[in-house]
Structures are given as C-alpha cells and as structure tokens.
Specification:
By secondary structure, this protein is mainly α. It has one domain. Helices cover 43% and strands 3% of the residues. The chain is built from seven helices and two strands. The chain has a two-stranded parallel ribbon with strand order 1-2. Helix 2 packs across helix 6. The longest helix has 22 residues. The radius of gyration is 16 Å and the shape is globular. The chain starts with a helix and ends with a helix.
C-alpha cells in the first residue's frame, strides 16, 4: 500500500486531513499507471485488500459512529472518494466517500479516460499510462478472501474493540457485498 500511496500527488488530496490517505476513483483506472507499481499478478490481491479495508472502515463509520474515532485512530485506513482534481466520465462525487464496490469497478474501467483536457491536468500527465493494462480478474480472489477477512474482523474486534460485537459487525460487512 505504501508504494502505491507514495506515488499519489499530494495536490490530488485536498479534502481531508493532511495525514489521511484518500484515494480518488481515477487513481485506479487503467488510463493512469498508479496501479502499475503493483506487479500484475498481485493487482487483484491489492484491489481486493483495498476493497475490504475501505468496506470495514465504512461499516464502522456508518454503524458504530460513537466508536469510530478510536477505530480510526488505531487503523488509519485510507478513504475512497470521488474524483476531485481530475474530473472524468464517472460523476465527480468530489469529496464524497464511495462504496468500495467502485474500487472493483475502477480497476477495469476502460471507458474512463481521466482528465485529458481538464483542470489540474499537469499534475497527472506523467501518470498517464503508455501501455494498456490488462483487465484484472478479481472475482476468485474476492470469494477466497471472505473467510480470511472474517477471521481478521473477529480477531480485531475481539482484541481491540470488544464493545463492538464482531459477529454483528461481520453481518453488516456481508450485507454490503
């Protein structure tokens, strides 16, 4: 995650705290090469990991608002938002948190060409992909990840936030799939 996040221009993250990582939809589309820092055979794993990370964060925020500040401080999970600095075909939704399903949509969104003529283009010009990325097949990885993430959720909430019933939390996660 750090190598991926390290290449995101800081000018592209203006809506949240400076120390909070926000990932805009267009950072994941094939038109840009941000995801290319991840080896091709691991991109599905990365996308599914990012999906679960954002999903767990959003489930906690949406359903356990009182406990969220402590959760956020411990996890420091990234936020997934709409496009702000590079308007694209996807409706902007600038500064709005997106459902993590859109992570899995973005990685194979070949219709979205980012910001070829728009504002802030110079920020992202160097990250336009010169080679068309192959589609990322993530369905099997997502399916296989479910029991692993269930165990992670159980362990995390049992050990760090026992006031949140992990089984109830997990059911809320599954409802979002």
């Amino acid at each position: 995650m750090l190598s991926f996040a390290g290449q995101i221009p800081s000018e592209g993250n203006k809506h949240f705290q400076a120390n909070e990582l926000t990932i805009q939809y267009f950072y994941l589309i094939p038109y840009y090469n941000y995801l290319d820092i991840i080896p091709a055979d691991r991109q599905a794993l990365f996308a599914v990991s990012l999906f679960w990370t954002v999903l767990v964060d959003e489930v906690c925020y949406s359903n356990y608002r009182n406990q969220y500040p402590a959760f956020r401080q411990k996890t420091q999970y990234p936020k997934f938002i709409g496009n702000c600095t590079a308007p694209s075909l996807m409706s902007s939704e600038c500064g709005h948190h997106l459902h993590p399903n859109k992570i899995l949509q973005a990685i194979n969104d070949y219709k979205d060409t980012g910001n070829p003529e728009g504002f802030g283009r110079e920020i992202f010009l160097k990250n336009e992909s010169k080679v068309k990325r192959q589609p990322i097949s993530y369905n099997m990885v997502l399916k296989q990840s479910i029991p692993v993430i269930k165990d992670e959720v159980k362990n995390y909430f049992t050990n760090h936030h026992p006031e949140i019933n992990w089984e109830e939390f997990w059911d809320k996660c599954l409802a979002e799939l």
